[in-house]
């Protein structure tokens, strides 16, 4: 068997990316995603595409922020690993999967082949996530009316709230940032991401109890693929009262009032309280996402 040839694509040969089957339905999941041809790479063996990856970033980014489409042909895990290892960007890998992939033998085998390739390239599992999509037929969640919401122009208020929220968090990405650089880094990464989003800064809201105490924050957002529940967080001293649902309901209403015809959302599979709130608010799980970190040692 000949060694695979790894190639970056261009506008003239971008069609090669479509040469592999798509058993996990990535194409449908990326209908609104805009990929740059030169950020797509393929592995060819004897002229046939046996692995592919699409690196992704915002329209103004000079380098990609993640890989969110990665496929390998049957038995070509090592070619997929080499595709990842040889890339000029070592960024987080997202493997997007149908919600029922664990129950269907063919989908599970396809998913596990991609996991094996990622691990062989030195990637380590970071987290498994639920991906949600609200549409109007789900109905708007009821607003409990217990909190007072308002805009807050001072980033320092959000930075402080994020530090408090992340001091006791279940979120794997936040925990990774805390391990690397402490609460300040975790809070700043959140702020940087939402400033990067194309939605207005004026949308960010704080929530207070009737007594005037800070209960939490919610950030309605648009990422490059559409409206999304950007962030929901309750400060530690206000937990146990179900306020995360209040924040989620308000965030949903806010986005609909801005014209959203669908709303995305996500939470870690292990964050059982937030998953329950999404279900209560009428957000069905449409896909799952497995995130791998490139920082691990090669398997």
From TrEMBL:
CDD domains reported in the protein's UniProt record: NAT_SF
Domain N-acetyltransferase: 163-299
Cross-referenced InterPro entries: Acyl_CoA_acyltransferase, GNAT_dom
Gene3D superfamilies: 3.40.630.30
Superkingdom field: Bacteria
SUPFAM superfamilies linked: Acyl-CoA N-acyltransferases (Nat)
Protein name per its UniProtKB record: GNAT family N-acetyltransferase
